[in-house]
Amino acid sequence: MKGDGMTFTNRKTQAGWNLENTYKQLSESFYSTIDPNPVADPELVLLNEPLAKELGLDPASLSEDVLGGNEMPEGAASIAQAYAGHQFGHLTMLGDGRALMIGEQITPAGKRVDVQLKGSGRTPYSRGGDGRATLGPMLREYIMSEAMHHLGIPTSRSLAVVTTGEQVRRETEWPGAILTRVASSHLRVGTFQYARQLGEEAVKQLADYAIDRHFPEVNESNDRYITFFEKVVERQAELIAKWQLTGFIHGVMNTDNMTISGETIDYGPCAFMDTYDPKTVFSSIDTQGRYSYGNQPGIGEWNLARLAEALLPLFADDQEEAVKKAEHSLSKFAKEYKKHWLSGMRSKLGLFGEEAQDEPIIEDLLGIMEKHEADFTNTFRQLTLGNKTEMDGRVDFDQWRKQWEIRLERQQQSEQEIEKLMRRSNPSIIPRNHRVEEALEAAVSKEDMKGVRELLAVLADPYAYTPEQEPYTKLPEPTGTPYRTFCGT
Ligand code: AMP
Ligand code: MG
């Protein structure tokens, strides 16, 4: 630790930090111990009080110096993790280039979560980057990740955003900021790809660590590594089904951005789809549409195949047998995904039980929505409320509605029960791109956080169907230019 004016006080009793560092039990090749990188003037802009309390932290005592990386709480480790990753299909050695892990907080409920400062300065993995982040994208990650959480989708969380009092140069200068990210771990598919480069022992060590941390039940299995792999397959299949069911487009599904825990991570270029179109892409760098909405399940499976490759030596001594086992386990992805997607779509349409025609009813609706360029969220919202959609009056949609109503009438459940299921399954609101941009613009150029706070408030219960949510269901005025997102940092 540096001695240049920084203090490392014990804030445990004050703020409630209760940190451990089990990641440091791994071989030193997995991380670099780094000195915190002080910033000029950390100032708190957003604090997630409910999350702080869940973590056992006292919101009032959380110091800006800790959240800005100037001061380490007692028990902090300050490391950057090493990992590799297939970025748009090409394997690269990476690592936390601008993040500092301060430790694993043990929550009052006994849960272990990583606490990481994102935008905290250069690390040995920064390559050409400055290690910093700017206010707009860090507020955007906060909004998107918290929206995902409240939609019921597993995700990393956002505890706080502080400005650093420093300017950060991108295409122009922006206020610097640090996001405190909380995740059940930052183990990625790419961490295993990195381990594979180190050798079989490292892969084994990492797999054992991941099992203990996320899937302790695997310790009972007599084929632990294949069982572990299948658990990850199941979690990711369920996660990606949830993305599809809400129209979430991750935008940069590189293997380094895919977790072992099954949480959504890395909120750079993500966005929610308005008009239903499987080809939808928002990311400015995804020119080939590799990570389009419709491709997400396939890419998920592709990424898991890279995880299987990394784990291969643990599956069996004989290479051919190992490959066979991996292929068998990976083939479960498509089935699991389909199971979750189908059951989610049934719920969105208020269908109880399972009938053979359900899938054609679902597919027909999606086909009609695509043809008429219907809004994804609002279509299901209107169906939930028993209102007309923008497609009513069209012959194909009217026919579809009849089929759907016949199917609804065949089931025993009452209208109220059906509506209840649909309200639970169809969010009234999502973070609409134009609303997010509007709020960020005011926050960054006018230091006006009102829009961000209001947006966060309505997104805290997306299934509430309150009158306050009504304005947030409105679509943007057509601009003629498609919405673009950036890995923009
Ligand atoms: P991402 O596209 O956000 O997944 O980032 C890919 C890699 O680039 C990760 O290893 C990041 O840590 C690194 N990175 C992104 N932005 C910066 C930056 N400004 N300085 C250093 N490293 C960065
Ligand atoms: Mg990343």
Please give a quick description of this structure.
This protein has helices at 12-15, 49-54, 64-67, 135-151, 189-198, 200-214, 224-246, 296-315, 319-330, 332-348, 358-371, 376-385, 395-410, 415-425, 433-446, 450-459; strands at 19-20, 31-33, 43-47, 79-81, 84-87, 90-93, 99-106, 112-118, 157-169, 173-183, 248-249, 271-272. It is an alpha+beta fold and 489 residues long.
Q: What secondary-structure arrangement, pairings included, does this model have?
A:
Blueprint: H1 12-15, E1 19-20, E2 31-33, E3 43-47, H2 49-54, H3 64-67, E4 79-81, E5 84-87, E6 90-93, E7 99-106, E8 112-118, H4 135-151, E9 157-169, E10 173-183, H5 189-198, H6 200-214, H7 224-246, E11 248-249, E12 271-272, H8 296-315, H9 319-330, H10 332-348, H11 358-371, H12 376-385, H13 395-410, H14 415-425, H15 433-446, H16 450-459
Antiparallel strand pairs: 1-7, 2-4, 3-9, 5-6, 7-8, 8-10, 9-10, 11-12
The structure holds adenosine monophosphate (AMP) and magnesium ion.
Adenosine monophosphate binds next to loops.
Number of strands: 12
Low-confidence stretches: 1-13
Could you give a short account of the major beta sheet? Answer: 6 strands, antiparallel
Oligomer designation? single chain
Taking strands numbered 1, 2, ... along the chain, how are they ordered across the largest sheet?
1-7-8-10-9-3
Helical element count? 16
Question: How much of the residues is beta strand, in percent?
Answer: 5-15%
Broad shape: globular
Helix/strand-derived category reads: alpha+beta
Helix content: 40-55%
